[in-house]
Amino acid sequence: MPSQYEISDSTKLLKLLEKYLFQYGGSTMIVLGFIGCVLSWLVYNRKTLRKNPCSIYMTAFHISNFMYIIILILPSVLTVGYDIIFITDSLGLCRFTLYMAFSLDIISPSCLVLASIDRLLVTSPNALTRRRSTCRLACISVICVSLLWLLFHSHAFVFMSIIQLEPNNFICYTQSLTYFTAISCYTLGKSIIIPSLLASLGLLTIRQVQKIGQTRSVADVSMLGTRSNIGIQSIHSKDRQLVRILLIDIGIYVIFTYPSAAFNLYLQITQYNMKSFNQQNVDTSIQYLCSLCSYISYCIGLFSNLMVSKTFRKESVSMDFVYILIYFHITSSCDDVSSLFIIFYTIKNEDVGDYFITSVNPTHTLN
Fold first, then answer.
1. How deeply is 156 buried, as exposed, middle or buried, from its count of CB atoms within 10 A (0-12, 13-18, 19+)?
2. Farthest CA pair distance, the chain
3. What are the pLDDT digits (tens) for 292-329?
């Protein structure tokens, strides 16, 4: 007679698939995410991009993604894929991890929401509306929204605790049924509202860009042969590149988040149903796999931006070339401190040509 705690062969296969996906897929995503977030942060801080308000939002987006990878994705991969559990070693670490996970999980898409609003301002046909897109407003918005969510999720320091399920098996969560219900409803609402809001803002941005394109086509014909037409094209070209980057980031986030939202909705609907031990294991495995799917949007931002934006590719290649110069200079003549100073000065001013000038003529001074 089968035991009530027995699981089927298909469930065992599903759990094995879950473990291997976290081991290999999760580890790969962490490495790509580390590289992508750091390089994206460096690219958005380049001279040609950092003066644009949208770059401030995207910089904050990639910084929050980097922290999310360290604080949530890395422990999840170690726990599910390698059976290494360390967040239950102390109550303080347990509460801090869940607090930061809750906060960063909403701060990252909030940066995309702010960037979408900024692109709506920039693509507005009203000149006064376009002027509201400023770097000062971007900095204030990022700081205020981040502080708001950090304060909002401070309840995790109070209600989270370490729960022992069985000998040598601990989890970090809450023992309060009321708080568990509130967190479940909040997670479900966030996973539905945020992607829907981002999708709506993305569609509005596309609509306004199309209107701007039609207006500019008429203006280009009337201003053909004038010098001012060149300036208008270059400004719109840079904004168009950032809009394209933002739209692809929104699309990636929405696509890879909706499976988790759909399964959270299923869990809420069936939370009061009597489920067998086998079905509980199936639900847990599917929930882990949906979470792994949602992690993809935090790790591939750099590579999607490289595919869709010529400006991003150009800045990445230029930045990589400068750092290759530094590497070869350090390995060949690490005792030349003055030359290293010149190289770092060159990086700050994003002028690779200065490096060759100073290498050929050591008496050359930078103004």
1. buried
2. 89
3. 999 999 998 888 888 877 777 777 766 654 555 455 55
C-alpha dist (Å) from residue 270 to 262, 263, 275: 13, 10, 9
Q: What is the pLDDT of residues 268-281, one digit of tens each?
A: 888 888 888 888 88
CA 135 to centroid of chain Cα atoms: 20
Portion of the chain with pLDDT greater than 70, in percent: 77
Are residues 88 and 94 in contact, defined by beta-carbon separation less than 8 angstroms? Answer: yes
**Token couple for 306:** 């490289």
DSSP 18-62: HHHIIIIIIHHHHHHHHHHHHHHHHHHTSTTTTTSHHHHHHHHHH
**What CA–CA distance (Å, rounded) separates 194 from 253?**
10
- What gap in Å lies between CA 134 and CA 159, rounded to an integer? 40
What's the burial of 315, exposed, middle or buried (CB within 10 Å: 0-12/13-18/19+)?
buried
Q: Which two tokens stand for residue 194?
A: 């945020």
Q: Which residues 6+ apart lie within 8 Å of 337 measured at CB?
A: none
Those residues whose C-beta lies under 8 Å from the C-beta of residue 127, and which sit 6 or more positions away, are none
Query: Which of 199-213, 219-233, 337-351 has the weakest average pLDDT?
Result: 219-233
